[in-house]
Write a structure and sequence with these properties.
Strand order of the largest sheet: 1-4
Strand content: 5-15%
Shape: globular
Largest sheet: 2 strands, antiparallel
Number of strands: 4
Number of helices: 11
Low-confidence stretches: 1-22, 32-39
Order of helices and strands: HHHHHHHHHHEEEEH
Helix content: 55-70%
Structural class: mainly alpha
Mean pLDDT: 78
Radius of gyration: 19 Å
């Protein structure tokens, strides 16, 4: 299935495919860190990109919700009237990720007026972080208000995030990239949890929540790196640790099976026959939803 994505703006991070993810090697992660003489360690682009590629696209999730018959609900999103509350770079970066996910949600449901409001909020936050120069908001606005342009939007947002991340790394502000990623991921998790709680019989949505266990492990690894030097990130890390503890009770079993070649209409493709089993209970979903909402409230307040 082709992945759609959204995340505009700054990194709006999540515009990638989800293949159940795999945990990055912790030692490889540590080895990849690049330290300067001023002890301003940054994360290599390769490591960050490997994590980004495992994060489920908010657009993919929104498509899944729409196809399941779930109606558009603006109350699930972070209202743009909260924008004035975000004064620190910590708040701006997190909520830039949040609004990026929300923009993807409005896009899938073709709510153009709401999409415009989120684009405006994203522009203001991006300018506040001095990364607004990476966005051509005229083009993004045209693409984001038409769901038929998702592929083009994905290309632009991916390119934007790479540019933004490189710039932040050069400015020794790579921690903001991690916050963008965290905010966008958490908002996507919040939306899917809220919808799933209304219909616990939707096993596909529940499995999507369970898949996030591995993604969260990677995000925690990134946050842990900055938590020792940044008290705000330390506080966020501690809150996310509670969420990780709940995810730890979810069992994910991967069964390997050799891939096979298949010919369809004269085209040979490789079929992945390995399977993944996710054991997640209704109680797990409810508790993950509760903790996620609590962390989100802390972020968007």
């Amino acid at each position: 299935m082709k992945k759609l994505s959204l995340l505009i703006g700054a990194g709006l991070i999540l515009c990638w495919s989800c293949d159940s993810g795999s945990k990055i090697d912790e030692q490889a992660f540590l080895d990849s860190l690049e330290t300067t003489e001023e002890n301003t360690t940054v994360i290599s682009e390769e490591v960050l990109e490997s994590i980004l590629q495992q994060i489920p696209s908010p657009l993919e999730i929104a498509v899944l919700l729409k196809e399941s018959g779930t109606n558009y609900d603006v109350e699930l999103l972070n209202g743009t009237d909260n924008l004035a509350n975000y004064n620190s770079n910590f708040q701006k970066a997190l909520n830039l990720g949040v609004y990026g996910t929300d923009l993807g949600y409005t896009n899938i449901y073709e709510q153009n007026q709401d999409a415009f409001e989120y684009l405006t909020a994203i522009r203001d936050l991006a300018n506040g972080l001095s990364i607004g120069q990476f966005f051509d908001f005229g083009v993004i606005r045209r693409l984001a208000t038409n769901s038929r342009n998702l592929d083009s939007l994905l290309l632009i947002t991916t390119k934007n995030f790479n540019s933004i991340n490189a710039s932040l790394q050069e400015q020794q502000r790579a921690n903001l990239s991690v916050l963008l990623l965290t905010g966008g991921w958490l908002e996507a998790l919040h939306i899917i949890c809220q919808v799933t709680e209304r219909n616990m019989n939707n096993e596909e949505l529940k499995e999507r929540i369970g898949e996030q266990k591995i993604i969260l492990e990677n995000i925690m690894l990134l946050l842990s790196f900055y938590s020792e030097s940044n008290p705000n990130i330390k506080e966020l890390y501690d809150k996310m640790a509670e969420l990780q503890a709940q995810f730890d009770s979810i069992e994910i079993t991967q069964t390997y099976a050799e891939s096979t070649l298949e010919e369809v209409n004269g085209i040979v493709t490789i079929s992945n026959n390995s399977t993944t089993t996710i054991n997640i209970t209704d109680e797990n979903v409810a508790e993950i939803s509760r903790i996620t909402s609590s962390i989100r409230d802390y972020i968007i307040q």
